[in-house]
């Protein structure tokens, strides 16, 4: 060993002292030479040692693939005997091929059963030396895409369970499952997934905005050296109740015409449409089914409020509209209760009704047509303690802006005090055939000067003999009683007497009507003031024509002669 002395000159600085210090640095060449010599002695001994090399080391192979383990011996100049075994005391499920110093353990169609600790043992026959080495065989499996299922149909606003199932995966403890809505991660699960098949449940409350969006189940197997990923994408189908309902606007229709109503709504499942008509009491009657309701011939009963109900398994929604049927009113109905024989002191209720206008109830005989009651669509009166004066003809008139219709009711109040003659007469009379008025005749349309008198007549056949009632109709279609009897006399005509007159001939069996018109004119318009000037004009024109012919004749004969005829 050679030592090199280094002297530090005066004035040089030492970290520990400010004086000269001698340091020695040794040369290690001697130690190096000694180590080299030892290596040269041991090298032949190491080169001749019997050893095994097993590859690949701790492999991770995919289920279904093949795997080959190679065990190679070195340090043996002669034959080598190989033995393969499991350190876990189980079968290897493989086959062995040996060639000289190399032995192969071959695994085909790897499965879970091939997970093992594999031992390769060998003996060098020439030296009698033995060696062994081992490796761990691992497998993984992610052979199929996940499947997405649900416990029930997805319904807006209701929590549902979506299940992702990953079959035949190994090792499950290394599996990561992610749920995504579009690109948004809803759930990431990497624990408690050891169950086979592996499942993950997503609890989700969908909305209508989720309709058509994609939900993804992504399964990733993290095996360290690599990550294997499979995923399945499903489009969301969400049930929701009807919405955005549209219905026909309120409409007017003439009596007898056709009309169509439509109603549509969005929803999943597609909504079914039911039509209902609401009556005045708020009750409803089914009018039809389907998005379109067709009425081929409108009647008064078709007027009113309609309700469209769009419904599916999730819920329902309604919309309303109104149909207004217009036209002349239907013939009103008039009836009494009780309907049997009426006697003095009894009570009776008379009802007048119509679906298509305002109704008015009048007593035409005995009260000069006074209005008893009026109302929209329905009216009635009750008469207590009937007397003979309550007998006679009652009128029910329905009126609306498009016209009017009239019906009549006739009844008699019987007196309980009958003489024997009255009873006999009544019995005989009852055998006579009664019939309603017929062959009614009425005055023709007439013109009358203002201030003059005029007479109208109306007669009809019938049994009992018909009673005649005169009524005058105003411009609004309303009527006023003008008189009773076959003859109506007006002593001094005024402008109010002009217009349409109605003659009503009635008896207990029925009635019949006839109409005529009175035209009242101004007396100052005299026909003579028009006729006389016209006659004069015609006479002068004729005389002028005669004179012209006479002058032409005189010119031709150079003379003329004026003749006068007396």
From TrEMBL:
Gene3D superfamilies recorded: Immunoglobulins
GO MF, any single term: cell adhesion molecule binding
UniProt-annotated location(s): Membrane
Gene Ontology biological process terms in this record: cell-cell adhesion
Origin species: Salmo salar (Atlantic salmon)
PANTHER family, per database record: NEPHRIN, V-SET AND IMMUNOGLOBULIN DOMAIN-CONTAINING PROTEIN 10-LIKE 2
Record domain Ig-like: where: 44-138, 146-237, 242-324, 332-412, 437-519
Alphabetic keyword roster: Cell adhesion, Disulfide bond, Glycoprotein, Immunoglobulin domain, Membrane, Repeat, Signal, Transmembrane, Transmembrane helix
Transmembrane segments: 530-551
Pfam families linked: C2-set_2 (PF08205), Ig_2 (PF13895), Ig_3 (PF13927)
One GO CC term on file: cell-cell junction
UniProt name for this protein: Vascular cell adhesion protein 1 isoform X2
Topology class, membrane: Single-pass type I membrane protein
InterPro entries per the UniProt record, alphabetical: CD80_C2-set (IPR013162), Cell_adhesion_signaling (IPR051275), ICAM_VCAM_N (IPR003987), Ig-like_dom (IPR007110), Ig-like_dom_sf (IPR036179), Ig-like_fold (IPR013783), Ig_sub (IPR003599), Ig_sub2 (IPR003598)
SUPFAM superfamilies for the chain: Immunoglobulin
């Amino acid at each position: 060993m050679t030592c090199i002395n280094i002297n530090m000159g005066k004035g040089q600085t030492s970290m520990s002292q400010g004086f000269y210090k001698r340091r020695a640095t040794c040369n290690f060449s001697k130690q190096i030479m000694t180590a080299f010599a030892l290596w040269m002695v041991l090298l032949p001994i190491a080169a001749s040692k019997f050893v095994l090399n097993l590859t690949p080391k701790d492999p991770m192979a995919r289920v279904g693939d093949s795997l080959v383990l190679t065990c190679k011996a070195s340090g043996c100049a002669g034959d080598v005997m190989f033995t393969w075994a499991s350190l876990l005391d189980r079968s290897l499920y493989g086959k062995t091929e040996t060639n000289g110093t190399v032995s192969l353990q071959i695994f085909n169609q790897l499965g879970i059963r091939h997970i093992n600790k594999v031992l390769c043992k060998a003996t060098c026959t020439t030296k009698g030396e033995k060696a062994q080495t081992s490796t761990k065989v691992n497998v993984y499996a992610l052979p199929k895409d996940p499947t997405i299922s649900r416990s029930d149909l997805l319904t807006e606003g209701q929590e549902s369970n979506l299940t992702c199932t990953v079959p035949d995966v190994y090792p499950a403890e290394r599996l990561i499952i992610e749920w995504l809505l579009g690109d948004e991660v809803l759930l990431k699960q990497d624990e408690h997934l050891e169950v086979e098949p592996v499942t993950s449940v997503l609890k989700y409350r969908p909305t209508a905005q989720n309709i058509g969006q994609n939900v993804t189940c992504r399964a990733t197997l993290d095996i360290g050296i690599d990550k294997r990923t499979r995923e399945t994408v499903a489009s969301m189908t969400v049930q929701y109740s009807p919405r955005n309902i549209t219905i026909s606007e309120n409409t007017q229709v003439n009596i007898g015409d056709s009309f169509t109503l439509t109603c549509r709504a969005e929803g999943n499942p597609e909504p079914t449409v039911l039509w209902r008509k609401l009556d005045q009491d708020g009750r409803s009657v089914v009018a039809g089914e389907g998005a379109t309701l067709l009425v081929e011939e409108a009647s008064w009963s078709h007027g009113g409020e309609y309700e469209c109900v769009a419904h599916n398994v999730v819920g329902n929604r309604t919309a309303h509209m109104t149909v207004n049927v217009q036209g002349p009113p239907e013939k009103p109905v008039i009836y009494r209760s009780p309907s049997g024989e009426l006697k003095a002191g009894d009570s009776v209720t008379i009802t007048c009704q119509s679906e298509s206008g305002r109704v008015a109830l009048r007593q035409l005989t005995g009260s000069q047509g006074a209005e008893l009651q009026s109302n929209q669509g329905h009216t009635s009166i009750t008469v207590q303690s009937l007397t003979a004066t309550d007998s006679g003809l009652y009128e029910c008139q329905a009126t609306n802006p498009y016209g009017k219709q009239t019906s009549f009711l006739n009844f008699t109040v019987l007196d309980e005090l009958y003489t024997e003659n009255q009873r006999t007469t009544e019995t005989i009379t009852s055998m006579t055939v009664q019939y309603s008025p017929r062959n009614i005749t009425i005055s023709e349309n007439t013109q009358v000067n203002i201030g003059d008198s005029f007479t109208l007549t109306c007669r009809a056949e019938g049994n009992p003999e018909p009673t005649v009632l005169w009524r005058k109709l105003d411009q609004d279609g309303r009527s006023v009683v003008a008189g009773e009897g076959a003859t109506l006399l007006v002593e001094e005509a005024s402008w109010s007497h002009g217009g349409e007159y109605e003659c009503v001939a009635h008896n207990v069996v029925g009635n019949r009507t006839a109409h005529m018109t009175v035209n009242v004119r101004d007396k100052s318009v005299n026909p003579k003031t028009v006729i006389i000037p016209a006659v004069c004009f015609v006479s002068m024109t004729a005389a002028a024509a005669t004179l012209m012919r006479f002058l032409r004749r005189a010119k031709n004969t150079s003379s003329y002669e004026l003749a006068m005829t007396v």
